[in-house]
Amino acid sequence: MFELETYEIVNILGLIIGLAFGMIAQKNQFCFSGSIKDYVLIKSTKRGASVIMAMIVAIISTNLMANHFEIDLTQSAYFKNNINYLAIIFGGLMFGAGMMIADGCSSRSLVKYAQGDSNALITLLFIAIFAYATTKGFLYGIFDPFINNSFLIELSSNLENFRINIFVILVILAIILFVLTKKIKRIFTLFDGVLVGLLVAIAWFVTGVIGQDSMERDIALSGISFVYPTAKTLELFTYYEVNELSFGVSMIIGVLIGTFIMSSMNKKYSFGCTANKNINKVKYNMIGGALMGTGGIMAIGCTVGQGLTGLSTLAFSSALAIVSIFISGVITARILNKYEKLPMCFIFEWDDENKKDKSKPLDFQI
C-alpha cells in the first residue's frame, strides 16, 4: 500500500466535502440568493429558513469542534490584521448585486452549471477572472489602494474585529428562523441546512487539525469558500506548472462532480424556461460574475465563505459582510423584479402549504 502525504489527504477530504456539498445543494437547491428571490417574488421563506439553519448549525458545530481540538479560529483570514470595514461593506454590496444580476452566487453557479445551465459557466469564468485580476492582475492597482488604505484601516481600528458573543448571535438567528418557518414542525424539515452547516465544521477540522500536521506544505486554516478558490481553479487548469492542487480547488472540483452525480438522479430541475424570457442572460452573467469576483475578494468571501464559514468563527467582519450582501441582494432583486428581469422557473414552498392547496405546483426552482 502506498502512503499519502498529509496535504494529499487534505486535498482528498476537500474533494469529498465538495462532493457532499454539491449533492446536498443540488438535491434541495440550497441557495442564499435564491432564498432572496423566493421571498421577493412569492414571499416564500423555505430556502431562507434552510440558510439560517445552516448558519446556526455551522456556528454551534464549529465552535464545539474548535474548543475540543483547540483550534484558534482567530488565525483565519476572517481576523486578518489591518482590516478595512469600508472595503468589506463595499465588496459585500458589489457581491450582493452581482449574485442577483447573474441569477446565482458563486456556489449556486457551480451547482447550476453542473446540473445543466451552460450560462452559469460564463458567470464562473467572470468570477474567476475578476477575482484573480483584483488580487494579482490589472484591477489590483485600482482596488488595492482602497482595500489597504491606511486612513480607512486606521479608522476601522477604532472598532476591533471582535468575536460576537455566541449566545447573542444564536438568539438572533433563532428568532429569524422562527419568523421564517412560522411553525416549529417545519424546522425539522430543514435537513439540507443542517448538513451544510456540519460540512462547514468538518472543513475547519480538515485544515485546522489534519492539515496542521503537514510537513511537506503549509496548509492555511480555512473553510468552505468559493470566490478565490474558483480563481485558483482557473489558474490551475491554465498554468498548472506554477500552481498546486489545494484544499479549496479540490473542493470546487468536488462540488461540480457531486452536483453532476445528484442531477443524474434528481432530474426535475431544468433551466430551459428562461430561454423564452426577454432577458439578456449572457450580459447579465458577465456583469454579475465580474461584480462577484471583485466584490468577493474585497469582502473576504461570498455568501458561503462569509455567511457560513466566516460567521461560524463569530467574526464581526463576517456579520458585516453578509449583512451587506443581503441588503444589496434584496435591493437589486426588487429593482430587477420591477423591470421584469428576475426570472422565475420554479418555486419552493413548504410541504404543508402544498398539501392545503392542491392547485399549487409541488416543487419549483428559482
- Domain module tally: 1
Q: How would you describe the shape? A: globular
Radius of gyration, rounded? 20 Å
What gap, in angstroms, lies between the N and C termini?
48 Å
Number of helices: 17
Structural class from helices and strands?
A: mainly alpha
Number of strands: 0
Order of helices and strands: HHHHHHHHHHHHHHHHH
- Main sheet characteristics: none
> Average pLDDT, to the nearest integer?
91
What does this structure look like?
It is a single chain. The protein is an all-alpha fold. The protein has one domain (7-339). Helix content is 66%, strand content 0%. It has 17 helices and no strands. The protein has helices at 6-28, 32-42, 46-69, 85-101, 106-114, 119-135, 140-147, 150-156, 166-181, 184-187, 191-210, 227-238, 247-265, 281-298, 305-312, 316-338, 351-356. Helix 3 packs antiparallel against helix 9 (166-181), helix 5 runs antiparallel to helix 6 and helix 5 (106-114) crosses helix 13 (247-265). The longest helix has 24 residues, at 46-69. The chain crosses the membrane at residues 6-26, 47-65, 85-102, 122-142, 162-180, 187-206, 245-263, 284-308, 314-336. It is a multi-pass membrane protein. Keywords: Cell inner membrane, Cell membrane, Membrane, Transmembrane, Transmembrane helix, Transport.
Give me some keywords for this one.
single chain; 366 residues; globular
Question: What's this model, at a glance?
Answer:
With 366 residues, this protein is an all-alpha fold. Helices cover 66% and strands 0% of the residues. The protein is built from 17 helices and no strands.
